[in-house]
Amino acid sequence: MSIIPTQVSTADWPLFPRKVKFEWSTSPLHWIPQSPFASHIVNQFGFSLVRGEYFFCRTFNKALPYIRDEKLRKDVETFIRQEAIHAQAHKESIEQYLQQYGVDIQDQYAKAQYLFDHILGDKPFGVALPKFLEKQWLFARVGIVAAAEHYTCAIGQYVLDHTHWQERGADPVVSDLFTWHCAEEVEHRTVAYDLYQHLSGNYLMRAGIMVGVLPILTYIVAAGTAKLASTDTTIPKSKTKLTNWKFWKEWQKAHQQHLAPGPIWFLTTGIRFFKPSYHPYHEGSTEQAVAYINQSPAVLAYQQINDVNKPVMMS
Fold first, then answer.
1. pLDDT digits (tens, 9 = 90+) for 79-134
2. How far, in Å, CA of 227 to CA of 231, rounded?
3. What is the per-residue pLDDT across 281-309, written as a single tens digit (0 to 9) for each?
4. Can you give the residue ranges of every domain in the chain?
5. How far apart are CA 264 and CA 105, in angstroms?
6. Which residues, 6 or more positions from 217, have their beta carbon under 8 angstroms from its beta carbon?
């Protein structure tokens, strides 16, 4: 096992913000041909990611004045730029791709907005905090981002290792959107945790945050999938209800087919975050992530259109 670097920033590889270009005119709703249900599992991430990643950006922008290490500051600034690009890419995919199939985007957007903008905003539930609590609430939200980024990294590595969507006949555009995004989550996997450790590093707070994040995130994924699946006439109604065991069986089946992470995976993945020795440095492969990014059709399309020099692949 690699030794974790001792400096404040543990990302001992370069980070790049990369713009992308997608063409959304022909992608089917069931973009994973083996499983309409798996298509909905992955698609629902977009609704949470748009509002969630804007929340990440706002939180980290507010944390910048508290960073005392120049390398970590640069990592955080690149992280913010990457997350903003991710959010915009998913916003466009929802509006230009999913909406054409009659998906109710307003309801999904509203739920994500309530969570990230109202509950987790500067004024949680609309309540102004006393001055002495504002900084602690900011640091706690950095911890929430770190916990969420544990999952995004794990999902990213899962996709790189197991799904191989396009090789299995999936739509190349939607496949590239999620695989490119997942690869960048693996690439910047250490930044949020490094920032949390730099600002607070409190283990009990970290563990307490994951106690909340694990069930809430799992519910968001499940409820969002059920909502999308309920609008799909090809899926039996029994498989679109959270209270029916057939829904959970179908989700676990998608996992067994290596098409999307399953409900048990969410539990076991979250448990790793509780280890006192946990560090995201060991949670993914930077080389594997950068290898995909450097051949992503959306990355290459933007570079070709805008004559952007491709970043040199790390040695």
1. 999 999 999 999 999 999 998 888 877 888 888 889 999 999 999 999 999 999 99
2. 7
3. 999 999 999 999 999 999 999 998 886 55
4. 45-306
5. 28
6. 148, 151, 266, 270
